[in-house]
Amino acid sequence: MPILPNLPRYETVAVAYCGCMSHALHIRQTRQSLNLGENVLRGDMIVSYHPSFESEKNIVCAGRDPGPEDLAAIRAADAVVLPQGCKRSLYEMAHRNCTNVFPNFNTRFNYAGKIGQARLFGETNTAHPETRTFLSVDGFFEKYEALPRQAAFEFPLVFKFNWGGEGDHVYLMASLDDLDKALQTAVKFEKSGRSGFLLQKHIPSGNRSLRVVVIGQTYISYWRIHHCRESFQSGLAKGAVIDADSDPDLQHAAITKVKAFCRDTGINLAGFDVLFASEPENNVPLLLEINYYFGRRGLGGSERFYEILNTEIHKWIDGIGLPCRKK
Q: Residue 202, Cβ neighbours under 10 Å: how many?
């Protein structure tokens, strides 16, 4: 599902990176410790914005949209490698002007936010918790104001704002009072220019969720388990712990599901949150959320992440038939 039409290929490679300066410094330090900076792509001109993929010409794109210099580099490129946190403007520029782009963020920008992800799950017939989406509080009341609200909702349910990740802006609603308070908060957000939320069926899952990370052709899974029964969230940022070994059959089922989803959508760099209901007879993996920028503790830390990413970038370059060598 191309986000934009692609133009003819040329004969060189550009590697593009737009991110914050502090993040760039961290990656550069990681590159030095892993000796990743010796990776060089063979071509007439190599332009790199990525601190872990150094080349003859390196341009900093931190805190800005791409400009004429970036456009010239991309137009002269045979492939473009973009950063995890790239802006829509950079992604669109790359797709307008180069045939090969990594990572594939078509779904990230075509199905933006949690509302967009819910629509994506529905359009692809992907198993996920029952979800109702609302672009605004007014839209919510237009649908439910005339209904007896006690009959409209089954509590507990999950309230999510359209933005945020790793468990941020996600709340468990136990009653109509909780829902009213969440709607009041939504009104405040709308006044500041942020809108959209969804209501989702609460799936009891034993205070754990499975994270499945895809990096190129590599898939890694691990459980995130919260031992506090009062907490319904299982993100590491919320105090959960990592368990990479339990229930390997469920992990295999989730990876199989995510692989099929990625094959259909083209996603090749993301962290998927997957739920399994607590009932032993219900072992269907439910896709909960897609995180295009995700934590790395469960992967072994940032150094390990960049090591895997570097390897997968080279595999991708080999796969599209471009020469690649180490300096």
A: 17
pLDDT, the chain, mean: 82
Which H/E stretch holds residue 113?
helix 113-123
Percent residues over pLDDT 90 in the chain: 52
In what side-by-side order are the strands of the sheet with 79-81? 57-58, 46-48, 13-15, 79-81, 100-102
Q: Model pTM?
A: 0.84
Cα 255 to Cα 253: distance, rounded to the nearest angstrom: 6
Structure tokens at 216: 């190129």
The per-residue pLDDT for 35 is 45
Token duo for residue 148: 């007896």
Same domain, 286 and 243: yes
Distance CA 267, CA 104 (A): 6
User: Is 216 in the same domain as 295?
Assistant: yes
Q: What is the DSSP letter of 16?
A: -
CA-to-CA distance for 210 and 254, rounded, in angstroms?
8
HSE (side-chain half, CA atoms, 13 Å) at 154 = 7
pLDDT of 63 reads 80
Compute the residue count for the chain.
327
- d(CA 258, CA 298) in angstroms, rounded, equals 17
Q: Which own/partner pairs from 32-37 qualify as long-range (CB within 8 Å, at least 24 positions apart)?
A: 33/303, 34/303, 34/306, 34/307, 34/310, 36/306, 36/307, 36/310
Could you please report the per-residue DSSP string of 144-163?
A: HTTS-HHHH--SSEEEEESS
Report whether 204 contacts 278 (CB < 8 A): yes
Instruction: Check whether residue 232 and residue 178 sit in a common domain.
Output: no
Please say whether the dihedral angle defined by the alpha carbons of residues 147, 151, 152 and 158, taken in this order, is positive or negative: positive
Print the domain residue range for 212.
208-303
Q: What is the pLDDT of residue 56?
A: 58
**DSSP β-bridge partners for residue 291:** 271
